[in-house]
Amino acid sequence: MNVIMQPGDAGSSDDSGQLAVLLAIGALYIGFGMTVGLIQGGLPTMMRAQGMSLGAVGWLYALYLPLGVAFLWSPVIDRWHPPFLASELAWIVPMQLISALIVAAAAFMADAALSTMFLLGLLLAFAMATMDIALDALAVERISAAWRSRAAACKLGALSIGAMIGGGAIVALFHHLGWTILFLCYAAGLLLLMIPMLFLSKAQAFHGVNRTRSNHRASLQNLLRNHRQRRRLILLTLTCCVIFPLAALNRLMLIDLKVPMELIGGIVGTLGPVSMLITAWISAPLMRHCGLPRTIRGFTGLGILALAAMTLGYTLVKPWLAISGSVAIGAAVSGIFVALSASILGWSRGEQPATDYATFYGVGRFASTLATVAVSQMVAVINWPLFYGCGALALLLVVGSLRTSLEEKD
Questions:
Q1: Which of 64, 172, 184, 319 could form a disulfide bond with 369, CB atoms 3.0-4.6 angstroms apart?
Q2: Per-range mean pLDDT, top range of 170-179, 213-222, 375-384
């Protein structure tokens, strides 16, 4: 995948070709979203409902760490790919197959030791993170500038569908279907979602693109030595450290508010991703007509309202208000990040797309995971209203700092 795109290559694809690429990439993002949804919303909710302490539940988010540090091995994906597959499939197919095998194995290990299951979770996260790097690099190479907003929205929509399954359906159906059936269905889904990419690799959408090998040695240092890229990375990371803890911990707040787990999985686990789908649907036209800065400011306003709703709902013991805020904050954070994702596609368009995209996306993901774990420990000491009040202030500060980077030309 270590290639340089020839000038005009990306823009030469017609609309049907670009749409085919989006659909194939989107299918794999659904599987990735299932994994993220299970880690973020599925396992912590089930464990908290079964009596695990808030502090202990917070450590389950450590399963997300491989998804955050994937940028460390992203230069390998730019430099080399297995020789037995076409370059666009070389990392995607093996990692997706490995992920499906891990999930299938876990389906028959419901009674295994917690340490064993945690290790399987880390291996799954590692395989899915590697697949995601290759998939993101493919998007950077194949999506033209005119389609970036739609590509970012497509990614959010696909991740939302996956989160609806991993963080919603699995939680809601766990007591009815059981561990084995749910995880076997999960593994089968990962295999089925790979089929569109296999067909696309033989289609015109992946042909006719002149690609030449580069002698460039991809590395993290190349990005960090660039002042503008370094500033973008810092601001993006700070933003992630604010927005993701605000969205990730709200289900734990609902558990503390004595909202039944089935209600959380059935309503928040469903309406949350649905609101993200709606956000994905409206974000592309918003970005095209209003621009990235205004779009982010609009979703920030929604986020402030959501934080106020959760604060009042928890303080006044109004579960419906807290649930409404939980759904809305997911939509707000998604809207902010889909706009940032459109920018990342442009920021990463160079000689090392896998490395640059994985670094922009991964450093923020890694730092926000650590922030989520730390904040979960902090909330156990302070309280939810104070957490949401500080979060609202931090959200306003980081969004204001992003304006210059968003207005810069690629």
A1: 64
A2: 375-384
For residue 88, give both structure tokens: 């666009």
| pLDDT attached to residue 144 | 82
pLDDT tens digits for range 1-50:
333 333 334 444 467 788 888 999 999 999 999 988 887 767 666 666 65
Q: Contact at 8 Å (CB) between 151 and 88?
A: no
Nearest Cα neighbor of 21 from 142, 140, 148 is 142
- Beta partners for 3? 213
pTM, entire model: 0.70
Q: Which residues are registered as beta bridge partners of 211?
A: 5
Q: What tens digit of pLDDT does each residue of 40-99 get?
A: 767 666 666 656 666 666 666 678 778 778 888 888 888 777 777 666 677 899 999 999
Mean pLDDT of 302-316: 94
Kind and range of the H or E element at 395? helix 384-401
- CB neighbours (10 Å) of residue 352? 29
Contacts of 39 (CB under 8 A, 6+ apart): 60, 61, 63, 64, 121, 125, 166
Report the sign of the C-alpha dihedral through residues 388, 393, 396, 397, in that order.
Answer: negative
Question: Which tokens go with 83?
Answer: 């020789």
**Separation between Cα atoms, residue 365 and residue 348, nearest integer Å:** 16
H or E element that contains 120: helix 114-142
Structure tokens at 277: 């789908």
Token pair of 359, please? 């670094």
Residue 330 CA to residue 346 CA, distance in Å, equals: 25
Q: Amino acid identity of 184? A: L
CA torsion, points 126, 129, 130, 136, in degrees to nearest 10? 180
Render 270-297 in DSSP notation, one character per residue: HHHHHHHHHHHHHHHHHHHHH-HHHHHH
CA distances (Å), 167 to each of 39, 197, 251, 269, 368, in order?
A: 8, 25, 11, 6, 19
**In contact, 70 and 132? CB cutoff 8 Å:** yes
Residue 367 φ/ψ, nearest 5 degrees: -65, -40
Q: How far apart are CA 126 and CA 10, in angstroms?
A: 30
